[in-house]
Each structure stands twice: as structure tokens, then as C-alpha cells.
Design a protein that fits this description.
alpha/beta, 11 helices, 12 strands
Length: about 350
């Protein structure tokens, strides 16, 4: 029989069950704040339940998406700012649902760390709950994994899983309806969103600035705070437009791969997107381009350059679609048109206007 003086516990191995319980206690009010029709906003069971009928659907198609935040979490870690990174996590998933015409219904998160700090974990989940409220979906559950030895001290990673639904026949893109001459609209982004941060961090290193230094491109904010500006969530405005007669034919979320990789995902093989690059580019991208010495083509395939979402409508619907989206709080820009494809799926006219 082992000597009790040599007996090991889970805490000795680096996993603190009590810390996990404390975090659950802290996050319960945030989870509860995301309750919506179909979900009660409580946690603690082995699985979460969602009632599609109570949510108002009669013949739904389920749509699922998952994503992470990438190395943007490293800036959150290095600055000690953890309260908005969860908004990014939700945004990256629910924006992928809305482009298919689906209303986000529920969200689950996976938070993995080497050492669980309940206050830090609660701040992260508070951000996730905030993102869910913006998107109108319930934070149905999640998993916190404390894995000493797998993550360096202070490091963590996040993954998110979202499920949405659309009534049969209302899914996007309406590929068969897309035609040459259709108008391409752009919805302004809130900044870099959550893509390209491995390059962003490399540029910050080259600049010699620390994250607590004033942001060269945004007076009144630190560099870290400005670069942590959360990804814009377009769900409610696009749902209003899609269901309100805007005539939306296709949507494209401008994430990793930028314009040339994301727009073709919603186009048929015979059509191309002709993009006019005359739209204004926010100062953060001008700073990144200048300090990093980045070519325009690399900017367009790495960053959103100020356009977080693409909307395609018939020319006759462009004015009403723009009006509905503006009324819902979006800044809308004309970006170009669809044209017969003769080579590349996305073509560019002019040059980006960096400020």
C-alpha cells in the first residue's frame, strides 16, 4: 500500500477542479443572459437542448459552422485584455452561418489552457456571451480544458461551434439567380477582424512598438487595444435584409484568403466578380501595409481591407438593399458587378486608396 505522504492528487498534476467550479459559478450569469426562444440559457448538464419549434421554425434546414480566433489570442494574452476575444470567436462562426441565409440559434465554445485562472476564463466567456447576444443566439454550453504541459504558462486557445437554421427554400446563395450585371455591395468592417494576425504580429515586431504604445493609426487608443477591436457581427442586419425584401442573391464573408479566395465560394463557374478598388481603406491597413512593405495583392488576399461582408443583388434591388442595411446600422459601399468569367473569378479595377 502506498504511503499517504506520497499520494498524488489531480491538483499536484496541475489540474484544479475547484478552479473549474469557480469559473462555472462566475460565468453562469453571462450564459443566462443569452437565453432566447428555444433555449433556456442554463448550463450544467451533459448536453444542451434546443427546441426548433419553440424558435418558430416549421420546416428548417440546420446549418453548422466552427472556427477559432487564430493568433489574435496572443495579443489578448500579451496585453491582458480578455473581455473581447470571445466576441471574435462568436463572430467568426455566426458570420459564416448568415452568409448561407441561416439564423444562428446556438453556440458552444471550447476553451483550452495550461493553467485555469477563473477570473481570466470568466472574462473570456463574458465576451462570448456578449457576442451571442449581438448575434441573437444562445450560449448553450461549452468545455473548459485545463491541460498542463500542453500549453505554455499563460497561453490558451479558443474554438467555437455554431448551429443555425433556415426555412427550406430560403438558403443562400441563390446560385441559379445570379447573373452578369448584378451589383456587388460591401459592408464596412470594424478593422482587421480575426484574420492575418500572424502577419500583424510580425509587423508589430518590425515596428519596434509595444502593445501599450499609442496606436499610430488611431489617436486615443493603445496599439493593443486598437488591434483587439472585435470582429463585426453582421447577423441581425443581414437577417433583416434577407427577410425584408432586399433581394439578396449571395453573401460572402471576407475572412482568411481575403477577396480572391472568399468571393468565388458563392459564384457559379461562368461568373466573375469585378471589384472596383476605389473604396476607402481604414488607417489600420495603411499602417500595416507601410510598416510591413506589403504588396497590394498580398493585402487583398490576407486582410479584409475594410470590407467584412459582400452582398450581391440585382441592379433593380441595389437601392432598397442598401437602404435596409443602412437602416439596420451598416455602412454600405458599392464595390462592383458580376460579369461573365473569362479567367480569374475575381478581377480588380484601379488601386486601393490607402490613407
Amino acid at each position: 500500500m502506498a504511503d499517504k505522504r506520497d499520494s498524488l492528487t489531480y491538483r499536484d498534476a496541475g489540474v484544479d477542479i475547484d478552479a473549474g467550479n469557480e469559473m462555472v459559478r462566475r460565468i453562469k450569469p453571462h450564459v443566462r443572459s443569452t437565453a432566447r426562444k428555444g433555449a433556456d440559457g442554463e448550463i450544467g448538464g451533459f448536453g444542451g437542448l434546443f427546441d426548433l419549434k419553440a424558435a418558430g421554425f416549421s420546416d428548417p434546414i440546420l446549418v453548422a459552422a466552427n472556427d477559432g480566433v487564430g493568433t489574435k489570442v496572443k495579443i489578448a494574452i500579451e496585453t491582458g485584455r480578455h473581455d473581447t476575444i470571445g466576441i471574435d470567436l462568436v463572430a467568426m462562426c455566426v458570420n459564416d452561418l448568415i452568409v448561407q441565409g441561416a439564423e444562428p440559434l446556438l453556440f458552444l465554445d471550447y476553451y483550452a489552457t495550461g493553467h485555469l485562472a477563473p477570473e481570466e476564463g470568466a472574462a473570456i466567456v463574458e465576451g462570448i456571451a456578449a457576442g451571442c447576444r449581438i448575434a441573437g443566439c444562445a450560449l448553450l454550453g461549452g468545455e473548459t480544458a485545463e491541460m498542463p504541459g500542453l500549453y505554455a504558462k499563460g497561453d490558451y486557445d479558443l474554438a467555437g461551434f455554431a448551429v443555425g437554421a433556415a426555412e427550406r427554400g430560403s438558403l443562400l446563395p441563390r446560385t441559379d439567380d445570379l447573373a452578369a450585371g448584378d451589383v456587388i455591395l460591401g459592408l464596412v468592417s470594424s478593422g482587421v477582424h480575426s484574420n492575418g494576425y500572424s502577419l500583424v504580429r510580425r509587423i508589430v515586431e518590425r515596428s519596434g512598438l509595444t502593445y501599450d504604445a499609442p496606436a499610430p493609426f488611431e489617436p486615443g487608443r493603445s496599439l493593443g487595444e486598437a488591434l483587439l477591436e472585435p470582429t463585426r457581427i453582421y447577423v441581425k442586419s443581414l437577417l433583416a435584409a434577407h427577410r425584408g425584401g432586399a433581394g439578396i442573391k449571395a453573401l460572402a464573408h471576407i475572412t482568411g484568403g481575403g477577396f480572391p479566395e472568399n468571393i468565388p465560394r458563392v459564384l457559379p463557374d461562368h461568373l466573375a466578380a469585378a471589384i472596383d478598388l476605389a473604396f476607402p481603406v481604414p488607417p489600420v491597413f495603411s499602417w500595416l501595409k507601410s510598416v510591413g512593405g506589403i504588396e497590394e495583392a498580398e493585402m487583398l488576399r490576407t486582410f479584409n481591407c475594410g470590407v467584412g461582408m459582400i452582398v450581391v443583388v440585382a441592379e433593380a434591388d441595389a437601392a432598397i438593399a442598401s437602404a435596409i442595411l443602412a437602416e439596420a446600422g451598416e455602412t454600405v459601399m458599392p464595390l462592383g458587378r458580376l460579369a461573365p468569367r473569362d479567367g480569374a473569378a475575381v478581377t480588380f479595377d484601379g488601386a486601393l486608396s490607402f490613407r
